[in-house]
Each structure stands twice: as structure tokens, then as C-alpha cells.
Amino acid sequence: MTKDAKSQAKSHAKSHYEVIVVGAGVAGIYQIKRLLDLGIDATVVDSAPDLGGTWYWNRYPGCRFDSESYTYGYSFSRELLDEWHWKERFSGQPENLRYLNFVADKFDLRRHMQFNCAVEAAHFDETADLWRLKISDGRELSCRFVVLAVGLLSAPTLPRLPGLDSFKGRSFHTYYWPHEPVEIRGKKVAVIGTGATAIQIIGEIADKVGELTVFQRRPNWSAPLHNSPISDAEMADIRARYDEIFAACSRSPGGFEHEPDRRGFYDVTREERLQLWDKLYGEPGFGIWLANFREIFMDEAANAEFSAYVAERMRQRVKDPEVAETLIPRDHGFGVQRVPLETNYLEAYNRDNVHLVDISKTPIERITEKGLRTTAREYEFDIIVYATGFDAITGAYDRTDIRGVGGERLFDKWKDGPSTFLGMLSQGFPNLLMPTGPQSASATTNFPRGIETGVNWCTDLMRYMWDRGITRADPTRAAEERWTAHVTKMYEIMLMRKARGWFTGYNSNVDGHEAGKVRYFVYNGGTPKYVAAINEVAASGYEGIVFSSTAPPTARRLAANA
Ligand code: NAP
């Protein structure tokens, strides 16, 4: 028996843990590390065959960060920071997965992880203050705390089109891009969707496939990524500046190095604005979005002026004026939806083998045996790629049967949108912790920065309870209503409230998530305000949370030989 198989068999023999972490992605890995450091009996379960979450699943060509790699890595271990060399400014999926495996191996975390274990149900047992979990392999597990580290974009959605199963070629959602190499050379490939994922794939495969046809329903704004390698000398410099880099991330609203230009949009001249925009368009990363004037996000006229600027840059890059006009969004301004960063995306449309089909004019009617049919004509393909996005933020929660006090289903509670306390707890679901839950700041920040904040806060809450023999924590309804109202109110000032993107819960392929039914999914106040708010709650002795200690205690320490 291998070491891994042995530890898997050993962990499968146990049925109770103090903490079960659901998800072995960036959040789950850090959460188990924190718990093991405290000597807590904890395990991670994941439906995937291995760790990595997002970076395990998304293997499509071109998949990479939009975050500067060195701001994406964990910040908790100086040794780790010193040992890891990021090779590209915006690292790609294979390297990101290697990184997460490196972290898990370095800290010996893998033996505390159980794979191919989907959590089908999690029910709260009110008499014992325990969660009882049904695992897809037939086991029932119990724990005092469940930490849902299930990801924000982990419930992929396919279009609701007739004939999806009839296609005789290869087809897949980008999330399930096959692990073995897919032969795309010389093939006729369709990409459906023009979100961040499609924009990465299209730029990457345009010069490799035979013919590429992009089916665009609504165009998306995008801006150049400007990726580049990181040399040894640059990495040495980054290592020397890590404290400074992470300090900048915690100061900035988005958890990135990029900080907004604090000059007023209207206090500077048009020439000064153009100067800034020319600079940002030529620089790597999200500066164009996050180091811009703050009015871009809130003021229609400011947003329109900047959108017109980006449209002009697009016209300069796309040779065919008709194609350029089709690619320019008209229904929303720049930056009110999550901005995809691209490499060669617009230039792809200058190639003879790349075709753009505007399906807002000629919608897809069905998938056929040979390809698909729009209202205008039939198309034949070897491969259809569905880059059609995710049931974001609450999708992974909705797909699990989670029941709290009185058997209330979380799905029912959140039917019209989530309501939480600080984005990390939900009333009636005691001891259910969501370090990157809906209405937390993690979705609107550089994910790992938000993840470390959320995991640290949840860990501190558990420690507080362990130190005091408390067995149950549940936020009050009033505290939850206050937080949800606060999150909702912040949408009022943001142009984003009108956008049809996943920040507002839009997904045309999920019932109830159609355009116009805004869900208040994310905290828009930025990292510093969010951190101040959650720290204030902790410092007050967790005002807004009701604690009780009536259930019998359980052994929570990890056995010495585990
Ligand atoms: P997305 O932004 O939701 O885009 C989905 C695309 O599919 C949209 O263009 C949508 O068009 C289209 N679509 C959906 N259903 C359709 C249908 N039935 N018929 C035709 N078109 C349909 O999803 P995504 O591109 O996967 O990106 C999701 C998020 O993942 C991003 O916003 C980002 O946060 C993250 N991501 C990050 C990176 C990175 O860091 N570099 C890369 C990829 C993804 P409509 O708009 O008309 O619905």
C-alpha cells in the first residue's frame, strides 16, 4: 500500500471530526493548514480526484490568472514565499496547480484530504450541535463545524439548448476540459460565449485550429493582459518586497497591487485623463480597471467617456470595422461587469480562419449531430466548446442538500438571493462557516487575499468557541438583516447594479437567475472596509452571534499518531 493509500484508508475508517472542510481548493488548503497547526482533528473532502479546486478543473487552453502571480500566492509562510519561483507575471493553470500541490506537500496536508467524496447532504443535528454529512461514497460523517470552501465559480452551467446530447463530435464545458491533450490542430471548433474564459481560449487557439467560429450573444469589454516571464533577478526583487506587496494589497479595495487614482475624474482635464488611460492600457494587469478613476464605477457620464476610449482602442486593433462594432458592448459600460484580460483576443478576429457570429441577431436554435443550427443556417464542427459560465457564488451551495435548524433548507432560504452575516454565517445554520461566502468581500477581491482573510476569521471564531467550551454559534436574525441591507445598499451607488453579470446573480441558464432579478452577491465596500467590519465584530466578542454550550463536548484534538 502506498503512503497516500494508507492515509486514505485510515481517514476513511473515521466517521467523526471536529471540523470537516468541504473543498480542497485554495481556501480548503489554507483552512486545513490553519486547523492542523492548532492540532484540531479535521479533514478535507472534495468531489474531485485530487486537490486544486478551480486549478484542478479548468484546464482549457489559455487558462491563467488575471492577478499578478506573486499577489495570488499564499502570504502565510515566509519559507513558502522564499521557496516558490513564479515564472510568469500572470501564471497559467498547469503552474498554478503545481503550486498548490507544492504547498500541500510542503506542509504534509494531503493525508488530511479525502478525494472523490462529494458531500451530497449536510444536516444539522440540533440535539448534539453536530453536522451530519452524507458522502457520495455512501459514508455518513459527523462534525462540530462544517467549513464550506466550495468556491465561487465551481458550479458550471450549460446552455439550455435542445439537442445537447445529439452532437457526434467532441463537446465540453470549459470547466471540464479533458485532462488528456485535445487534438485541435486543423479542427473546426466552435466556442459559445464571450466571457473571461472564452476570451482566454479564443486568443490562445485561434492560430492552432483549422477554423474557429465564435458565437457571441453579448459582447464583453476586455483589455490587454501584457503577460511576461519573471526572471530570477525579478523574483529576487519580488521576494525582498513581499511585505510591501501584501501591505499594498490589503490597502487597496480589490486586494491587488493596483490602487485607484484618487484624483477626481472631473478635477483633471480630458488630456490628463487620456494620459492616464494610455498608460494603463499599455500596462500589465487590472490597472485599467482598478487603478482608474473611481467615478468610472459610479458615474454614468464618466463611465461612458472611458468606455468610448476603450471602444476606440478596440477599433484600432480589429481590422474589419463591422467585426469591431459587433465586438463593442452597447448594453453596459466598461468595468461594470468583471473585466476579462486578454492576450491576442481582438487580433484573433483579424485572422481568416476566425469567424464571429452575432447570435443576438441569429440565435442558436439547437445543437445537431454535426454541429449547431442558428436561425440563419447550419454549422458543422469537430469540437464544440461551451464557455457558458457558472451558477456563480451560490451555485455550489444550491447543489448540496444543506439543512439547518428545524430542517430549513439553505436553498429555500436563499431562493431569491443569499442573506448572511458578514458573508460567512447564515442564521439558522449554526457552525456552518463560509470563509468566502456570498456577501463576503472575497469575490470582489484578488481571491486568495480574500480567502486568507475569511479563513483566518473563521478559524478565530472556532478558537474562541473551543477556548470557552461553546458548542454552537448562530448569528441573530437582526444582525444578518443589517449585514444584508448594508450589502444591498452598497449596490445602489455602483453602476454594476444594472449589469447582467455574475456579480448581480445573472445567469440565463439557471431558473430564477435571469436578467432583472438582482441578487446581492458581493460586498462592494472593498477590502479595508470589509476587514475593519469583521474585525470589529470579533473584537466585540462576536456581537451579533448567539453562542450556546448545551451539547456534550467532543474530542477535538488530533490524536498524536494521526
Ligand atoms: P461568464 O463571464 O458568465 O460568460 C459566459 C458567457 O457565455 C457569456 O458570454 C454568456 O453570454 C454566454 N452564454 C451563456 N449561456 C449562453 C447561451 N445559452 N447561449 C449563448 N451564449 C451563452 O463565464 P466565464 O467566461 O466562465 O467567466 C466567469 C468568471 O470566471 C469570470 O468573470 C472570472 O471571474 C472568472 N474567470 C477568471 C479568469 C482569470 O482569472 N483570468 C478566467 C476565466 C474566468 P450572455 O452574457 O449573453 O449571457
Explain how this protein is built.
It is a single chain. By secondary structure, this protein is α/β, with parallel strands linked by helices. 33% of the residues lie in helices and 15% in strands. It contains 19 helices and 20 strands. The strands form five sheets. Strands 1, 2, 3, 4, 5, 6, 17 and 18 form an eight-stranded mixed sheet that branches. β4 and β5 form a beta hairpin. α2 (26-37) runs parallel beside α17 (447-468) and α17 (447-468) runs parallel beside α19. The radius of gyration is 24 Å and the shape is globular. The two termini are 17 Å apart. The relative contact order is 0.14. The model has no long low-confidence stretch (mean pLDDT 95). Bound molecules: NADP nicotinamide-adenine-dinucleotide phosphate. NADP nicotinamide-adenine-dinucleotide phosphate binds next to α7.
